[in-house]
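Re-run with default settings, no changes from the original entry. Doing this only to confirm the output is reproducible before filing.
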Amino acid sequence: MILIADSGSTKTEFRLIGDKGEETIKESFALPGINPFYQTEEEIKELIYRFLYPHVSHYHFHKIYFYGAGCAFPDKKRMVENALLFSFPQAGISIASDLLAAARALFGEGRGVACILGTGSNSCLYDGKTIVQNVSPLGFILGDEGSGAVLGRKFVSDCLKNQLPLFLRDRFLSQYQTTPEEIMEKVYKQPFPNRYLASFTPFLLENMKEEYIYKIVKESFTDFFVRNIRQYPVTDEKLGFVGSVAFNFQDILKETAVEQGFQIEKICQTPIDGLVQFHWNLQNNFWNV
């Protein structure tokens, strides 16, 4: 059995796939997001042990592939690996970034520029095997252009600075039953401020016909192309996106791409199905050698 995980800051999706000749996807699970930049090793260990292990303890995994936000650095990879080994000590564990997950899901063993637009944002040039170039995303304070966290940050900042049309401000505060004081508390004093800010993207989507909101989204997507994609030699490369923001705002994303001289080939809401196909193909190729 193989366990595959794709984790962002908001949600972690798990898929179990069988050996050769067995049903491809045997079970699926979802947990809260795992990100070693925002959680300790003990917190990740507890999350896996409490919410995943009871459902899969009767399986024997010979391999676990975990792709996650924050897993591009050796020390962060070790944190997640140790947390998984606590519950699955016999499994071979491979930890990789969510960016490699996006690239493999979008292009398999082909070339392309893979992009993430979800709670955070990221991008890379992928040669079919490895990431060969990456513009650092820098997080939602210094970067993460086009992400849910940045869209939310820009929106609530304008809301609290009285830059929004009054009817939009009142609609937002009423719909979320929140106050400026509560927003400040959750952004500056509570954990996962990026996840909190990204939770406002449904409001933006619902109100895209409002010129002010359309402008916020359009400018943020333009920043993503200018500050990230233009740094890659993308003239002849395929361009693909994964993530909830890319999927739900795909009309304006495609429009912005064309205006910036790019053509998007593929948009997926989540990379997990593409990852299942990628590893299923690898497994079958191994058995067929």
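Residues 211-227 form the longest helix (17 residues). The longest strand covers residues 25-32.
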